[in-house]
Structures are given as structure tokens and as C-alpha cells.
Amino acid sequence: MNGANDPGLLFVGFSDKPETMRLDRANRHGLVAGATGTGKTVTLQILAQAFSDAGVPVFAADVKGDLSGICQPGTPNEKMLARAAGMNLELRPDAPPTVFWDLFGERGHPVRTTVSEMGPLLLSRMLELNDVQEGVLNIVFKVADTEGLLLLDFKDLQAALKYVADNEKAIDVEYGNVSAATIGTIQRGLLTLETQGGANLFGEPALLLSDLMRVDGSGRGIVSILAADRLIRSPRLYATFLLWLLAELFEELPEVGDPEKPRLVFFFDEAHLLFRDAPRALLETIEQVVRLIRSKGVGIYFVTQNPADIPETVLAQLGNRFQHALRAYTPAEQKGLRAAASSFRPNPAFDTAEAIQALGVGEALVSVLDEKGAPCVTARALIRPPASRLGPATDAERGAVIAGSPVRGLYDTARDRESAFELLKARAEQSTRQAEAAAAEAETVKRREADEKAWEKEQARRERTDRSDRAPAPRRSSSRQTMGEAFGKTLVRTIASQVGRELLRGVLGSLKRR
Description:
This protein has 514 residues and is an alpha/beta fold. The chain has 16 helices and 12 strands.
């Protein structure tokens, strides 16, 4: 699928001449645009396979499930064969090496990162937090760093939020106001994200970027396909995850300038979701990543319906463009059409705006960068038919690809090591044990004091009883005791002695038990 005569060129279509894209300019990013059903996915597919054949790894999100067929050799029909013949192209069925990924771990290898790696800015975007709530989330991350608490998964973050709420007064003094209401709002956002499946994103083993930049034994780049047909139902989660992936590439990869070919090409389908309702600070971050990541050897190709979906500051950095048909019936659509047409280098042979509306399925306006990095004159071209299958792979075919994957077994089983949740749980249990021990000690002291008072009281009573026994008896007319008086005295002494011994035994028994 590369240029027939030059391995540094990718053959993408035919106008009145072969339309090719330079590999050494492919890191200058690109755009694939057009209305639904005009051929964007096919263009993405032939570009991905062309890069793979040139030894460039590819990452692409499969939003509709159609791109999964790239893992299987195609079966060209008569129309495809006729188009290939018109381009003087021999269409040989072929499929690039493919790895399937899935945030939910159902249709590919699980994709995970840690809460700490995601960071408070992107997490705030995912949770749709306002500035105040984002500030509190930053404090939670700061406290976790200070306390040595690893934030790996959802339960770690929830535990850290609870810890901050429980220690609100102490944290307020050092970091600023943290209200219970704001913590509650963040916790509700986490609950919502969890119901959307967001908890699957966080944990270990975390994705290694090197596993997205693999080349097989024959030198072809691995095409990594993210199953996103379910993920796209949660647009914020989808867009934030892909933005995190771009940010990780930007942070981790070294500078390489303009290489002979990209180290990785990244296709961002439904790109408008990345920019929808994004705050200015985030837009500036995206613009910076797009501007600078090309020097890391990464090419980003946005796939969307209309170029107007992308901010002008980002659009200006997309050098290689493939524009499929647009329809312009409403004033807003007409404005978008004019914006799309004005972004191409004019061709005196046709009016760009009219040409965009007249394009058929599988046709596109193509403008790529030349050897000096300047855009070529726009050409109206037929996009070449793909060598791999058009349409989705079956479940059995997908399963066979996953079973033979070079990353099989590396990510399929989650790992839960000691982190914030376990550490805070252990601290709480220790505090509970200490509180129970202190309460038990206090109760022991209280009982001891009560027993001592009872013993002292009994001793005082016995002393009074003994003194009363030693007191002189009243004078009698007779010094002799009657038998009844002698018996009564003996009985009283016996009863008093037994009561004293039993109380004393009770006090000593209690002390002995301690």
C-alpha cells in the first residue's frame, strides 16, 4: 500500500495522477472530515494499513465497530476491483497485525491507568466539575501525595475524599477551605462515572505506551484498535481517555524532531467530542500538546464531520487533509462549508466549496504536505480501495486475534496492591482499636475506683460496729445474762460477721479479676 516507486510515500488515491502522502511529513498531523456515509472510515482504514505496511504503529478508536475488519484480509467485489484497475493498482487481500483493546475488557485487552496518572485536571473534566470543585480535587491529590497515599483505583480516590472530609478543619488551615458539600458533589460525580463503566479505566496493571508502539517480526507496525462502540455512549469518558493517552505520549516520549517516519500515528475519531464544552484552560493544553507532540514523532489525525468542529488554533496545525462530501442546507451548515473550503489550498481547476458538495462516496479533496512542509494544491481524488475487509470482524475472528495477541496475559488480570484504600482502612482500624482500648482502660479505672470506695465504706462500717461492740453495757440490777439475751447477742455478731466477709469477698474478687 506504500508508494509504488518510493517507500517514503503512501499511496492513498488517484486524481489525474497518483495521490501520495510523505512519511517524513506524516507527523505534521492530519484531518479526515466528511458527512456520515461519505467514506471517512474507509480513508482511515487505508491510511492505518498504509502506515502499518511502512513499519509505523497505529492507534485508532473504533466508534462504530466497522474498523475491526482491518484484522482480516478483504474480499474485493467487482466495484472495488474496477476502481483498483482504474488506478493501475493490483489489489491483493491483506491484513495488518492487529491488537484489540477495550476499556471494559469485553472485546479486547483491558485498558487501565491509575488515578494518579490521570491527574486532577483531566479527572475534573471527566467528572464535569466546576472551578471550585476542581480546586478541592487538587487539594485531595496534594494531601494524598503528602501522606504517601497511592491513588490507583476508584476506591482509593473515594477513600482519600473521605479522609479529607473527616480531617476538614486541619486541612482547611494548611490548604484552604474544603467543604463537605463540595466533597459530596465530587463523590456523586464518581458514582455517576462508575455507573457508566468509568471505574474500569482505573487500576493496575496500567497500560504501557510501549505496547502501543510495537512492530511485528516482519517489520510491520501493530494496529491497535480500541473498541469504542460502547465507550462512545459516555462522550466525556471517551474524549478524556483519549486526551490522557495523548498527554502521556507527550510527557514520556523523547524529542526526535522530524523523523523519516512517525513513531506512532494516532487517529482520534469523533474528534468534536474533545472540544465540546471544554474550558479555555483545557483547550490551551490540547493546542499545546498538538503543537509540540509532532517533535516526539507522533502524528495525530482527527476524524470528524466538519473541520469547523475543531478550533482554528488546532485546525491550523493539521497539514495533511482528506475532505469527503459535506451537505449544506442550513445557514450553519453553509458557514461550516465555507470554513472547510477556505482551509484548503485553492485549485484553479475547480471551486473548492462546490467540489466538496459534489463529491461522491469514496471521493475526497486531498491536500498533503510537500517536501518543504507546504500544502500541495488541492486535488479531487478517488480514495483507493482497502486490502483488508470492509465492515466488522466477527466475534470468532476477534477472539482469535485476541488469543494470538503479543500482549496476551499482560493486562487481562487486574492487580490490587496496597494503596490509599488499604492504608487508610488500616489506619482507621488501628484508631478504632486504640479508642476501644482507651475506653476499656477508662472503664477499668472507673470500676477500680468504685470498688475502692465500696471497700473503704465497708471498712469504716466495720470499725463502727467493733466500737459499738466494745461499748460498756448498761447497768443491770443483775450481772447475770438471761439465756435469751446471750442467744440474741451471739446471733447479731454472727450475722454482722458474715455480711462483712461477703462484701469483702466481693471487693477482692473484683480486684483479683483485674
